[in-house]
Amino acid sequence: MSERDKDTAMPDWSAYRGVLIFVEQRGGRAKSVSWQLLGEGKKLADKLEVPLKAVVIGHDVERLAQEAVCYGADTVYLCDAPELKEYRTRPYSRVMLRLIEDAKPEIVLFGATATGRDLAGAIATHLPTGLTADTTELDVEPHPSRLLLASRPAFSEKMMATILCKQYRPQMATARAGVFQALPRDASRQGEIVRIECPLKEEDIATQVLDFLEEAGGVNLEEAEIIVAGGRGLGGPEAFRMLEALADALGGVVGASRAAVDAGWIKHEHQVGQTGQTVRPKLYFAIGISGAVQHTVGMSNAETIVAINRDENAPIFRIAHYGIVGDLFKIVPAITEQVKARRG
Ligand code: FAD
């Protein structure tokens, strides 16, 4: 074997099999990225001809283990203990490290959320293994290499890089919410639920969570089913009140393009796109937004897109399911009136 072959030769990883998804929850509610990852994980597991596994960690979360089965998991590891009620790095990472040691999955996926990023980083450092953050495409090479092809934007988001982890197992990645599609929920699916022990007692944990303070006026674009987004065409911050009225009437939330955020008209947490949130709502209004690729990459997976723009050649109309050409200052209040009238 040449020196170069020695460098690239992969160790024998045949003991590691299966794809494991971390099901993230807070207060017993799963983050939708968990179900989206199960949908994508199923494709990888089928290609590798291995079972799809999930892990649910928390307190009083047994129901979520069954939900994970409905969304595609064949086996769900459930670690349910009072010490795990709130996310804390040490107890959660200890549960995961022990599980990885016992179950030996070849791939482990997490949502690229604050929790997922923290947990995946802690585990990768401990094992140690590689971790690709913020992936937007996942694939696998079939047997014998069985390599995870984890792709993400690189070099100021100008190109896609595919990252491999040849020398360590498991292969780990975090993935953005809204990029992958969940399987339809199937209540008739059967799967195995395996209970695992929490390895720590409260006295072994140095940190305590005293309280959660929700940010006033905070927006959760990731989980929103209806988003009413505005761009530079709004001309200023006042026009966002008009969008809020439409969003309120529809039961949705307000999103924005980067141009509107950079102008200081609305906070960054509302930004949709490459450097904002990736969203997958049922209904997305793009109002006074031209449709630059850096915006559409974050919303093109919406089920229905309605664009309102006075320029009939605006690129947003190429991906919109419904397009309204005209002045947003006339059209938006008219739609809001109609929605309110129909809702009584
Ligand atoms: P514009 O392109 O100026 O479009 C305004 C639109 O409003 C026009 O189409 C106009 O016809 C219409 N309009 C004006 N007045 C009216 C009216 N009265 N009635 C109806 N229509 C009207 N952008 C994002 O959105 N999200 C990102 O995450 C993001 N990330 C980026 C990352 C990088 C590395 C780079 C280089 C750029 C990024 N951008 C992002 C910026 C992106 O390239 C565009 O500049 C931005 O999306 C444009 O915002 P806009 O559509 O609101 O503004």
Protein described:
This protein is α/β, with parallel strands linked by helices and 344 residues long. The protein has helices at residues 3-8, 32-48, 62-70, 89-103, 114-126, 239-250, 258-262, 293-296, 316-319, 328-343; strands spanning 19-23, 25-26, 29-30, 52-58, 75-80, 107-111, 131-135, 137-140, 148-154, 159-163, 171-175, 192-195, 226-230, 253-256, 283-287, 304-309, 322-325. Strands 7-11-6-1-4-5-12 form a 7-stranded parallel sheet, with helices on both faces. Strand 4, helix 3 and strand 5 form a beta-alpha-beta unit. Helix 4 crosses helix 5 (114-126) and helix 6 (239-250) packs parallel to helix 10 (328-343). The longest helix is centred in the N-terminal third of the chain and has 17 residues, at 32-48. The structure holds flavin-adenine dinucleotide (FAD).
Short key terms for the protein model shown above:
344 residues, 24% strand, 10 helices
Please sum up the structure shown.
The protein is an alpha/beta fold and 344 residues long.
